[in-house]
Amino acid sequence: MEHRTHGDAQAMVPDSLQAPARRRWSRRPATLFGALAAVLLVLAGGYWWHGKAQAGPTSRATPPPRVSVVQSVRREFPTTVAITGLISARNDLPIGNEGDAGRIVQILVEAGQRVRAGQVLARLDQGIAISRVNSAQAALAEARASAALARAEWLRAKQGPDLFSREDADQRRAAAASALAKEQAAEAQLADARSRLAHTVIRAPAAGLVLTRTAEIGEIAVPGQTVLFHLARDGRIELRGQVAEVDMPRLAVGQVAAIRLEGVDRTYRGTVWQVGSVIDPATRQGSVRIAMQSGDRDLRPGAFARAEVQVGSMPGVLLPQTAVLSDEHGSYVLVVDGADKVEQRRVNVAHARSDGLLIGRGLNGTERVVAIAGPFLQPGQRVVVAGAAS
Asked: Which listed residue, of 98, 147, 163, 233, carries a Cα 20 to 30 Å from 132's Cα?
């Protein structure tokens, strides 16, 4: 019995019957790939049109940036010189012990108290000083007695030349002169002892305001080393300030200053009474002293203060500091023109004030200047002015 394989069976099929079958199987993959490509093309096109439809209205609806502007006005502005410094006593008198070292036994004044000239501020222990005075008084009394006796002997020798030899008379005359010298020395020692006793009482050398008290009861007051009090002569107060080198030529004696203290709301008035004659080579600053009215409890020496002295006026436009920008070419501002477009304008900053920058050149006083966020804008860019009618 014969066994036929699949290949033998296929070989027995006529070629005319095999050809149509092969053509159907060869066309089927091409048809499938074509249909799949058409579907993908339709989906891609729909996605593209959908994205375009969404993106188109959004891009067209993006508004221009909104900015705040300040209207420039050109007018005369007072020019001032800024001064910073410390409140100080105009004449600060350190008061110490001018006599012998002694222990403080009494303090009669406190800081902030006004005193008159000669008023007692403190007392030292007087025990040793009183003993020296008593001893000097006794020595003076003895010297005076000896001097009186010597003068009497000399007078007797002068009145009776026949009773005394010339040598004896000369001795009596020398003894009288020596006794007189001892008497004068005793008087000087007594005066010194009394002066030392007087220095155990610490007095105010002038009328004024007690600034500080460092004296303490029981402390040893050493002359030349221990400062017991600081006194402002006549209570006069001043501002000792520092000024930039470029501003020094604009200051003069007699100019009025407006002074403000940290933590104090009011403004104080002062008068320039001294302008320094040298410039510190390290800081490039000069010194100025401004006299102030005393009597206010807030004018404490050591307090930090700022002052402004008006030195003239100049025309210009005042702008906030945020409106003025700078680059490698200098300072500039951004101006919004009549078409609400940004324009860059070069300016010259003439003076820096506490309330802004004074523009000397570059603006005529009719421009709308961008007040803030200038670095994010470009020249020619259209903007919307905040607060303007749309």
From this structure: 147
